[in-house]
Amino acid sequence: MIYPVIQNNSLNGKAVNVNSVKVEGDFKETVERIFADYSIDTNGNYTINVKISDSRKTTYIDELFSLSDEKYFLTVNETCAVIEAATRRGVFRAANTLAKLIKNRELKCGEAEDYPLFKKRGYIEGFYGNTWERSKRLSVMKLMAQYGMNTFYYAPKDDIYHREKWRELYPQKELNELKELFEEAQKHELDFHWCIGPGLTYQYTSEDDFNKLIEKFKCVYSIGAKNFGLLLDDIPDEFQYEKDAEKFDSIVDAHIYLINKAYKTLKEFDADITLTVCPTQYHGNESDYYITKFGRGIPTDVTIFWTGAEICSRVLTSREANEFFRSTNHMPLYWDNYPVNDCEMFQEMHLGPILGRDKDLYKHCEGLISNVMEYAECSKIPLLTIADYLWNPVCYDSEKSIKNAHSVILGDKAELFSYIADHLAVSCVSRHASEYMSEKLSHIGFLMSTGRQDEAAIEFKDFNAKNRECLEMLNDKTVPMFAEMQKWVNKFSMCCDLLDAVYTTSLSPTDENKADLASLLEAYNSDAVILTGFCLREAAEKALLL
Predict the structure, then answer these.
(1) pLDDT at residue 440, as a whole number
(2) Going by C-beta distance under 8 Å and a sequence separation of 6 or more, which residues neighbour residue 299?
(3) Is the dihedral of CA 91, 181, 312, 363 positive or negative?
């Protein structure tokens, strides 16, 4: 099976073995570039015929009661495959699906109709911490586009020109880098949104501050960007300037004033400009005074970010989305704080699949934008599951999706990687970790308590041998993802040592072995990095009582 899951798939006839292709028709160069990304030769015999057809069939999504520029059809027979879509973006989506089918040897005769259910599907660099390197930005962007995302928000908290030096225009070097990022987004059919966060020092009554804000927008507009974000999150909720306090009754009035004035000015400059805003109250009760007045005070075509009931919400429900719309007259655009692991979460590594988002949430919101970790390579794994959910939430299967994500990122290393991945699922969306280890240690304990010590010893030894094999693999820092994970790899090494000590003490509970085990357990518990669940400590404590 390929991911994201195709909406209506009847490609279930005779298998078609394709080693190379030739592309004909519209957007030939785009399709050839996509196939090259999957290392598929485009100088072959199997024909890929691209047809552009702007009709109800290729543009309308019944579930959404709206048009889409991403819908496409595939028709496959033994000699050729036909892509039918209304736009370049639709062709882009179809070509990626077809390339995956060919690469995975899953291409079969038949037809497929495919389209996304969430309108905006993407991610935001909105974390606190080291900003991503250029190469990693481009790598994540390319991968997410291949798996169906269509939106990228640029808003790194530690980009000094985003918050700290918001009044200053980008120097030419940094502006050129931003332009390259914008152009790469266009290449991969991602809508690029540039954001600014002036709220730490902005004076709402200052014409000079307002003019500097508009000039900053125009500076970024010069590279081609037309989608902007004005972020007022994580700033004081009281006035910092006396003149502001004198003019406005409350902080929300000042925010409404700023947004309306900025939006009017930007629209007069270019009517195609769009604006997304993040309010200071970006989570909690949808009916609170601030967010209700905020939403009703700004134009309905300004998009509002919302994280849900909590900053890092365990669940996002259709009921809550409807309440948000009722209160604000805006559908929320979810800023989903998963898998981000900044601030108080910095000792966690979030590698589990997305969970807890309603299957019909797409009907009640503008979309969902995932806030990533400062660890770009690690972010790819949860992002792939998020891309699966956003394209086809009805068919989303978290367990299958996470296995696919491991395979995409790690290839033949995926199975061994599962031994550490078992421990890295703790986050806002799941408090469960170490499920496999818990089952394994529980079974070993059962064997021990029923007099089958030899069987228990074999299972224990084999289990930790696999953990040791995984650890050896993780110590290869030439693998970019493993290099990012070293803090958790070090804790995993301690875990392996502790398991060995539990094994030794269980077989021979001498005072010396117990002392060694107690020392390792104390060191493990003293390390603040979050890894295994309670099961490991429980196993160690039981061994100490022998």
Answers:
(1) 93
(2) 260, 263
(3) negative
* Neighbouring-strand partners of residue 61: 66
Instruction: Please say if the pLDDT value at position 157 is more than 90.
Output: no
What average pLDDT does this structure show over 399-414?
A: 97
Inform me whether the pLDDT recorded for 166 exceeds 90: yes
Task: List the beta bridge partners of residue 504.
Answer: none
How many angstroms separate the CA atoms of 88 and 81, rounded? 17
Alpha helices in 51-206 (DSSP H): 56-59, 88-103, 134-146, 172-187
Q: CB neighbours of 528 closer than 8 A, spacing ≥ 6?
A: 347
CA dihedral 200, 201, 205, 206 (to 10 degrees): -150
Which burial class, exposed, middle or buried, applies to 58 when counting CB atoms under 10 A from its CB (0-12, 13-18, 19+)?
buried
Reduced to 3 states (helix: H, G, I; strand: E, B; else coil), residue 354 is: coil
pLDDT of 486: 96
What number of helices (H) and strands (E) belong to the chain? 19, 16
485 and 373 Cβ atoms separated by less than 8 Å: no
What does pLDDT average to over the chain? 96
Q: Looking at the DSSP assignment, which residues form a beta bridge with residue 48? A: 23, 81
pLDDT tens digits, one per residue of 373-401: 999 999 999 999 999 999 999 999 999 99
Collapsing DSSP states into helix, strand and coil, what is residue 20? strand
Domains in the chain, ordered, with CATH?
Answer: 8-114 (3.30.379.10), 120-396 (3.20.20.80), 435-544 (1.20.58)
CA separation for the pair 481, 36 (Å, rounded): 24
Could you tell me if 378 and 484 are in contact, meaning their C-beta atoms sit under 8 angstroms apart? Answer: yes
CA distance 384 to 311: 22
Q: Which two tokens stand for residue 22?
A: 């030739």
pLDDT over threshold 90, residue 445: no
Question: DSSP strand E in 86-242: where?
Answer: 110-114, 120-125, 151-154, 191-196, 227-231
